[in-house]
Design a protein that fits this description.
By secondary structure, this protein is of the alpha+beta class. It has helices at 16-29, 56-70, 103-118, 146-151; strands at residues 7-13, 35-37, 45-53, 76-87, 92-101, 131-138, 158-161, 163-169, 177-184. Strand 8 (163-169) and strand 9 (177-184) form a beta hairpin. Helix 2 packs antiparallel against helix 3.
Length: 188
């Protein structure tokens, strides 16, 4: 039943200059590294909590829980930091841009996860690794040339996070992610 329900996640949105810089890097890499999916630049984000499928009532409960959880969180500063991968070394499943953050982002992610658990969502138990997905689903039999990734330097862009967003996923649209609710940090 959950699979027929809309899917949701909570994330840090990216400002336009950061999305543009990432789109330029993705364009440089597309064709040099072989992935099936390259997200639309409007879909770039930093996931805090993946929720999966949920009904309207549960999402409404979640909105109140997250609002309350983050109202006292301070804004935090983030910085793009390199390119990396998840998965097999030679044919990784995800290509990502790294993010440097202070403890405030990790505290925010923990508060969001606690709020999600409080209304019945099961949360990922793996250690949190903030990143921005640039491509996913390795295509082909050839191996990744890691030197290509090393040559693609990320500009050290920094920005301040003042809010987070609840997104709904629309798998057949482009961009796929629809913002449903913005939660301001430090609104308490």
């Amino acid at each position: 039943m959950a699979d027929s329900m809309p899917h949701y996640f909570i994330a840090v949105p990216l400002p336009e200059p950061v999305r543009e810089a990432l789109a330029q890097k993705a364009e440089l890499l597309n064709g040099k590294v072989h992935y099936k999916q390259w997200p639309h630049p409007q879909d770039y984000h930093i996931t805090l909590a993946f929720l999966g499928g949920a009904g309207f009532q549960k999402i409404n409960e979640l909105k109140g829980a997250v609002e309350s959880a983050v109202k006292d969180c301070e804004p935090c500063e983030l910085m793009l930091n390199g390119v990396g991968t998840f998965g097999k070394k030679d044919q990784p499943r995800v290509l990502w841009a790294g993010v440097s953050a202070d403890q405030k982002l990790y505290d925010l992610q923990q508060k969001v996860n606690d709020a999600c658990r409080s209304v019945g969502f099961e949360m990922d138990k793996r250690p949190y690794k903030p990143h921005i997905t640039l491509a996913k689903k390795w295509a082909g039999e050839e191996k990744l040339d890691r030197e290509i990734l090393e040559r693609v330097a990320m500009a050290p862009l920094t920005w301040e996070v003042n809010g987070i967003v609840l997104f709904q996923i629309h798998p057949r649209r482009m961009p796929k992610y629809q913002p449903l609710r913005i939660f301001s940090l430090g609104a308490g």
